[in-house]
């Protein structure tokens, strides 16, 4: 008779109990440890992925300027260079701009000298850091920073233009500033001079050399050259006529 024990051919109660234990408890613990493992795996993937995204987000703005047609990487001005720039600004007035302002050190130094100063910089991290530095130094009312491509900005409103560029960009910037700047403006170049202008003042040496160019000087030279050219052509015309 098939009894409570499960009858003939049935599974013995003890065996059933053991089976239930082995059929439910063991897989559950395996499942739990599997879940635990996949939890750690997910966390690790999240950490690695997050770190990679953060590194990418921070590093990209520093790398992209080097990949542009004109490669202008972030190389901060030295303390001596800043000192030389400030010297070139003595007895100058009016708004100042640093073209490619990096971490804002030149703009902040100028603001400390009382200039209303602005910086244009492609790298947003550097702009945010510059704003923080200006605030920390207490010149946030005089120093303004823009996330902007220097080639897309018109500098006509500035009387003092500072640039720490690279030789490759100087001929293009020279042409741009010649068109945009007013006659009373001064351009200050750090480390690399402009190729065609003649400096009105030079200070420092080696990599800390700074050149100052007064727009009035190169405008006068251009006018003189034009007049000379016109005189020469009218002289040659006269010679041909007589
Ligand atoms: C040589 S660093 C000079 C930094 C700062 N002026 C100084 O003297 O410490 C040149 C800066 O120009 C920025 N830059 C490069 N290309 C730019 C562009 N097209 N527009 C604005 N800034 C640019 C770079 O990110 C870098 O911070």
From TrEMBL:
<keyword id="KW-0496">Mitochondrion</keyword>
<keyword id="KW-0808">Transferase</keyword>
<comment type="similarity">
    <text>Belongs to the ANT/ATPSC lysine N-methyltransferase family.</text>
</comment>
<feature type="transmembrane region" description="Helical">
    <location>
        <begin position="39"/>
        <end position="59"/>
    </location>
</feature>
<comment type="function">
    <text>Mitochondrial protein-lysine N-methyltransferase that trimethylates ATP synthase subunit C, ATP5MC1 and ATP5MC2. Trimethylation is required for proper incorporation of the C subunit into the ATP synthase complex and mitochondrial respiration. Promotes chronic pain. Involved in persistent inflammatory and neuropathic pain: methyltransferase activity in the mitochondria of sensory neurons promotes chronic pain via a pathway that depends on the production of reactive oxygen species (ROS) and on the engagement of spinal cord microglia.</text>
</comment>
<dbReference type="InterPro" id="IPR029063">
    <property type="entry name" value="SAM-dependent_MTases_sf"/>
</dbReference>
<feature type="compositionally biased region" description="Gly residues">
    <location>
        <begin position="1"/>
        <end position="12"/>
    </location>
</feature>
<dbReference type="GO" id="GO:1905706">
    <property type="term" value="P:regulation of mitochondrial ATP synthesis coupled proton transport"/>
</dbReference>
<protein>
    <recommendedName>
        <fullName>ATP synthase subunit C lysine N-methyltransferase</fullName>
    </recommendedName>
</protein>
<feature type="region of interest" description="Disordered">
    <location>
        <begin position="1"/>
        <end position="22"/>
    </location>
</feature>
<dbReference type="GO" id="GO:0031966">
    <property type="term" value="C:mitochondrial membrane"/>
</dbReference>
<keyword id="KW-0472">Membrane</keyword>
<dbReference type="GO" id="GO:0032259">
    <property type="term" value="P:methylation"/>
</dbReference>
<keyword id="KW-0949">S-adenosyl-L-methionine</keyword>
<keyword id="KW-0812">Transmembrane</keyword>
<dbReference type="GO" id="GO:0016279">
    <property type="term" value="F:protein-lysine N-methyltransferase activity"/>
</dbReference>
<dbReference type="GO" id="GO:1904058">
    <property type="term" value="P:positive regulation of sensory perception of pain"/>
</dbReference>
<keyword id="KW-1133">Transmembrane helix</keyword>
<dbReference type="InterPro" id="IPR026170">
    <property type="entry name" value="FAM173A/B"/>
</dbReference>
<keyword id="KW-0489">Methyltransferase</keyword>
